[in-house]
Specification:
Elements: H1 5-19, H2 30-36, H3 43-54, H4 75-95, H5 100-103, H6 116-126, H7 129-134, H8 141-159, H9 181-190, H10 214-226, H11 237-243, H12 246-263, E1 272-276, E2 281-286, E3 289-299, E4 308-317, E5 321-322, H13 325-330, H14 337-342, E6 345-348, E7 351-354, E8 365-369, E9 377-378, E10 392-394, E11 398-400, H15 403-413, H16 417-426, E12 430-443, E13 447-449, E14 454-456, H17 464-470
Parallel strand pairs: 1-12, 3-10, 9-11
Antiparallel strand pairs: 1-2, 2-3, 3-11, 4-8, 4-12, 5-7, 6-7, 8-9, 13-14
Length: 491
């Protein structure tokens, strides 16, 4: 489609102003501005864009974030609106609609650097705007599963606009009777986890049964398993909270999870450790192959583990714990001298230091990350926590299950097993240099793909709300106030 001279000038002015600044307000390459001035749309590419934006819910995004109202009839104005919408949608797909550094207290994980301003003119020239946009979000099985599930729950939410939350009350135990049982049944039916409520067991015609039946218990256990809760079938506490999410709440979680995946680079380091602090586990990748998975303990809700990326290349055998001033002031200062001596705390250079040994809060090995937030991974003497459903119990650092075994794996892969064994048996604090620097990404993903199905986790840090708000979604239910565990001293 050829533009008149006047329309070309108008489009050029628009394109130059648009390309002059990126999303962060930084000047871009002016050659890109001149290239953008040549953008022109035709009926085919316009249709492709409109269909792609209409399909934005497949990416957990609302179409009106990119286009609102009718398009202008004037070609120059219409082309300007289409260009702006295409670039905005492309940016959202390629590296996220929101800026995590603006909505998170700390976020240092590298983001994708796709140049959508260079990609759009090429897509217009080739007439494949739709294909180009579809190539921008993550192409992983996880993202595809999130997308399909989001559309499923959006559809269910539309069919159950009258969804009613189950009222709070005493826990409902399997086999018992409770007037809220019909509400539990209705909530699970609306979420697609149970068939339509029946009238079986009714005391009078039309009255729903108040008996907490085995079939309903099975559906509740399925919900508990999906959310990483103890599958005991008891309705109360966190189980009641996740039942009350309903289909709309699940759709919201899935939209937030897709946004977080778009924040991550499409080509992460081939050798890396990914820690999901929402689900409290880590995955270790070596040369592009997944080689290990294990549980971790992350920060308590009032001492959250931040979303960071930092490398380590040293293992610390028999580490000492040099206690941060905040923990020393708030917690250790309240302990008796007898307790401090019993737990091997001394004063060195004016600060508390816990000496190496069996009682040390870092255990007998530390993964010495290079992080300004002073967050790192380590062993722990509190092994029992790894067997609990909720493992948010640390002061922000990450405790690793069977940490010595994990350290031995890393040492073996780098040919420094003997050095590690010698350091461990010495009983003294010693550093073992690895040949490979391993980046660690600490992400927060409340919905994730476990290789065969999607898993949900409670939003213990209440971080989903900020992401949802940035996407124009409603807030989730308020979480109950957290009661810190006064027995937790370690990092």
């Amino acid at each position: 489609m050829r533009l008149s001279a006047g329309k070309a000038v108008m489009l050029a002015l628009f394109s130059v102003s648009l390309a002059a600044c990126d999303r962060g307000g930084n000047p871009t390459n002016q050659a890109g501005s001149a290239e953008s001035a040549q953008l022109a749309w035709n009926k085919k590419t316009e249709k492709q864009l409109l269909e792609a934006i209409q399909n934005a819910p497949a990416n957990g995004l609302k179409p009106d974030l990119f286009l609102k109202g009718d398009l202008p009839s004037d070609d120059s104005q219409r082309f300007a609106v289409l260009t702006q919408a295409a670039l905005k949608y492309a940016e959202a797909l390629s590296h996220g609609y929101a800026d995590p550094q603006k909505i998170a207290a700390v976020y240092t994980i590298p983001r994708p650097a796709a140049d959508v301003r260079a990609g759009l003119p090429q897509a217009l020239q080739n007439g494949n705007v739709g294909e180009w946009l579809a190539s921008l979000p993550p192409q992983t099985d996880e993202y595809k599963a999130l997308s399909q599930a989001h559309l499923h729950y959006v559809q269910l939410a539309g069919q159950h606009r009258d969804f009613q939350a189950v009222p709070d009350g005493k826990p409902i135990k399997p086999g018992s009777r409770d007037p809220r049982v019909p509400a539990v049944s209705a909530a699970l039916s609306a979420t697609g986890l149970l068939g339509a409520p029946t009238q079986q067991g009714a005391q009078q015609p039309g009255a729903p049964s108040q008996h907490y039946s085995p079939a309903l218990v099975g559906a509740v256990k399925q919900v508990q398993a999906e959310f990483g809760l103890k599958p005991d079938g008891i309705v109360g506490g966190d189980t009641l909270d996740v039942i009350n999410l309903g289909p709309a709440g699940r759709a919201r979680m899935l939209a937030v999870a897709m946004e977080r995946l778009r924040w991550l680079t499409r080509d992460p380091p081939k050798t890396r450790i990914d820690v999901n602090t929402a689900a409290t586990f880590l995955d270790y990748w070596r040369d592009g192959q997944h080689v290990d998975h294990r549980e971790v303990v992350a920060g308590e809700p009032d001492k959250q583990t931040p979303e960071i990326q930092a490398p380590f290349s040293r293992l610390v055998a028999n580490p000492k714990w040099r206690v941060p001033d905040s923990i020393a002031e708030k917690e250790l200062s309240k302990k008796s001298q007898g307790w401090l001596a019993e737990n091997d705390f001394t004063i060195e250079n004016g600060r508390y230091v816990q000496q190496s040994g069996d009682k040390n809060s870092l255990g007998i090995v530390k993964f010495d990350m290079e992080d300004k937030q002073q967050i790192y991974m380590h062993d722990t003497p509190a092994k029992a926590l790894f067997g609990t459903p909720d493992r948010h119990r640390s002061h922000g650092c990450v405790r690793v299950q069977n940490a010595v075994q994990f350290a031995e794996m890393l040492a073996s892969q780098d040919g420094v097993t003997q050095q590690l064994e010698d350091a461990l048996t010495s009983g003294d604090e010693k550093w073992v240099k690895l040949k490979t620097e391993i980046p660690v990404r600490m992400v927060y993903q409340t919905v994730f793909w476990d290789g065969s199905r999607l898993q949900f986790r409670p939003d213990v840090y209440s971080r989903d709300d900020n992401v949802a708000a940035a996407l124009g979604l409603v807030r989730g239910p308020a979480r109950k106030p957290y009661q810190p565990n006064p027995e937790e001293i370690g990092p």
